[in-house]
Structures are given as structure tokens and as C-alpha cells.
Amino acid sequence: MAIFRQNLFRPSEPFITQQARLLRRHAPFYVGRLRFGDAPAGATSVALQDRGLPGAWPLIGWQMLTRDPAPYLRLIGDRRPALIHAHFGIDGVYALPIAQRLHVPLVTTFHGYDATLSTAALLTSPAWANYPLFRRRLAARGDLFLCVSHFIRDRVLAMGFPAERTLLHYTGVDCRAFPLRDPAEATPVILHVARLVEMKGTRYLIEAFAGLAARHPELRLVIVGDGPLRPALTAMSVRLGLADRISFLGARPHAEIAGWMRRAMMLVLPSINTGTGRVEGLGMVLLEAAATGVPVVATDVGGIPEGAEDGVTGILTPERDPAALFRAMLALAGDAAMRARMGQAGRNLVERRFDIVRQNHALELHYDRVRLARTS
Q1: Per-residue pLDDT tens for 333-366?
Q2: Which of 91, 97, 255, 263 is the most buried (most CB within 10 A)?
Q3: Beta-carbon contacts of residue 251 (< 8 Å; ≥ 6 apart)
Q4: Are 30 and 45 in contact (CB under 8 A)?
Q5: Where is each Glycosyl transferase family domain found (predicted)?
């Protein structure tokens, strides 16, 4: 089967390769436009970028504009996938002509901004502009649409996708990769793992941490991730006198992030609804923290409440409210028993609802059904 993602192997999207590598009955290979990281060990991948830069750019620009499947078909060559699984609705629009030419089913997973971003915002990007133009065609001709949360499914249905082919499917977490920790492993670290963009609400976390740092001089905020707001957020930490209390680590390997999870007192994700419609589809980092036994503080927006139960696995606060974030973090910082209780509840939740082995079993049954429907 072909995993289609125009921007392959982004460090912020490990959930795509994690899901694919744990499939049991389908062997994935990856097809895309550009590479943003290395392919998983042993995996086959092809990209338009591989034709050699700068010579590839005219081809990439042409394909981006026209959705012509020919460049991708040449990359795929003699491989004959049984189906194509596109990640993000925008990629589904580009994968549809490929699937039609190959006469194979197309499965598309909606993750977040592809279901929530405004049409005006989509039209500002050449890479996204075809999406609102051809979204109805995808809805009519795609075989199956999977949504990472109830919240995202509701948004996709509102865009006109057929209810009978638009299903909830949680991507899942590999519980073996995030074993439950002993609460004694926790250190005075508050962890934030996110791309440094407006939607993640990092500025509100830093503002809230300023008050917490005054109460708890032993606490440290560790921020893992990179993005366009990093210079402004770094300057903010200096302005608030927190330069020696906040560490900006940049993008780090997934295994290193798992290590920080084990040492964190709590994980905080204060995501917001942006003016363009960007909002958290679910929040995979919250599930990874919960699997590890780390309590979470997050905002009550988007799909977050499906992966973080307020008062059970963590504390949910209103968005853009640093005072509420401060109170939530203060409560957790001062109560080791609550942290341990919420950490165990988080692990239980992930095992019950998000275990990737069970979720991948369901995913492969979806693959079987769309393939059978094509032959019947």
C-alpha cells in the first residue's frame, strides 16, 4: 500500500510513520512531494524532490498547480499498491487522481487544519489552494474518510462529506514505546512539546509560568519544538526574567522526547482557536504523556477533551487564560498524590481507547472493506 503525504517525514508528524510501521498485513511505501526528514529504517520511499534539485522545482510547481498524477505515477513505477492512504484532506485531493489512474481505493485521514482552516486562509497558500476547489470531488469519489476525533468528524461532515464513509478513527499510541513510569521518576520539569506557532498557545504558558516560577523556584520549563515564533518567545522569556528557567530545545528526536516525558512533572498544551480556524484536532502529545503516566494541563478546545479528561487525567482550562493555566499548574505542582492518580488514569485511558495495536487492527479491517467494495 502507498502512504501519500506531500511533505514526507516532518518531525512534527511522527504519528504517520508510527501507524504505518505497526501495520501487520499491509506493507507500506511512502510517496510524496518533498522530504523533511529521513524515512523509517528499512522503509521504501519516493518523492518528486528525488529527481534532483533545482531541476525538480518546475515539475513540483506544475504538479502543485494542475494535480497531474503523471509525475507520481512515474515515481511509483512498477509498484502496484492495493490502496492509497493519504494523510490530511489536502493530500487526499492530490492523491485522488493517482488512485483513479491506478484503479485502487483511496483512504484519507483528516487530522486537524484540513477540517478547520478557513477557505480564505487556504487560498493564501499555493500548496493548499486546490483543496477548497476540489474538496467536493474528493468527497464524492474518495472511498473512505477517517477522522482523528469526533470533533474533526463533525467538521468534515459540515464540509459535505458523506456520513456513511466518514468515520471516527483514533490514530493510536504505541504503549510499548511509552511504558508507564514510576511516579518517582518525575523531576521538577514542566514539559511543553509543540511546534512554535500561534495555535499551540506557548506565549500563554510562558506568561503563566512566570507566576509559578515565583512560587516554586525549583521548577523549570522545558520547551521542545521549533517554529516561526521561537525568536519572539525566547525574547519574551528574557523580558520576564525567565531566561535561566526556560529551556528552548528546538526539534528533538522522538526517542529523546519520550525521555523528557518520563522526567516531567506534567505536560502542558495550552492550544487555542486561531483567527484562521486552526485548532487542535486531538493532540497526540497529550496521549503520549498520558501513556507514560504524566498528568496533563491543556485547554478545552477542539478535540483535546477526547484525549484529556478534566479532573481525571489532567486539568482543562479555558483558552487564552494564563491565570487559569497558572492555577492548574500550581495545583498539580503542589500535590504529588494527584499527579500520580491522574498519571495512572491517563495510562488507563490510553490503553482503553487509543492503543495503536487495537486501532491498527481496526484500520486494516477498513482497508479490507474498501478493497472488497471495489471488487464486488
Answers
A1: 999 999 999 999 999 999 999 999 999 999 999 9
A2: 91
A3: 11, 12, 224, 225, 226
A4: yes
A5: 185-348
